[in-house]
Amino acid sequence: MSFTTKLKVHGFHLDSFGHVNNARYLEFLEAARWDWLAASDCMQVLQQEQVVFAIVNININYKAEARLGDVLDISCAVGRLGEKSVQLTQEVRRERDQVVVADATITFVFMDVRTRQARPVEGRLRELMLAAV
């Protein structure tokens, strides 16, 4: 199952070439992940279990330009669910023509805030991740 959110490109997202700066895509992808978590019970479960998610790897492919005023559809989908890690696939599309602007694969772990160690993806968190597949 995929989750999609929207983001409008503003002037402060642009570089001197007039298109979205590559570093801004990290922020766009992160904003979409937060929206994805907020749309499910995941945030509540993370808080109850005193767990955060920590990104351990990001791979981004830049495919087309996004410019001032573009509205972007940014999707998140669970791609692979391991014992201690989750791999998300994300895609950024221009709303007006549905051209893929960028895609990314993000791997994260759930980290116990007390021990600062990765913990297994189990229990309610695993159920929520499986429901998002």
UniProtKB/TrEMBL annotation:
- Cross-referenced CDD domains: 4HBT
GO MF terms listed in the record are:
hydrolase activity
Write one Pfam family the protein is assigned to.
Answer: 4HBT_2
Q: Could you confirm whether the keyword Hydrolase appears in this record? A: yes
Name the record gives this protein: Acyl-CoA thioesterase
Keyword Glycosyltransferase among record annotations = no
Question: What EC number(s) is this enzyme filed under?
Answer: 3.1.2.-
Q: Which InterPro entries match?
A: 4-hydroxybenzoyl-CoA_TE, HotDog_dom_sf, YbgC/YbaW
Keywords of the record: Hydrolase
Family per record: Belongs to the 4-hydroxybenzoyl-CoA thioesterase family.
Q: Which PANTHER family match?
A: 4-HYDROXYBENZOYL-COA THIOESTERASE FAMILY MEMBER, LONG-CHAIN ACYL-COA THIOESTERASE FADM
UniProt cross-references to Gene3D superfamilies, sorted A to Z: Hotdog Thioesterase
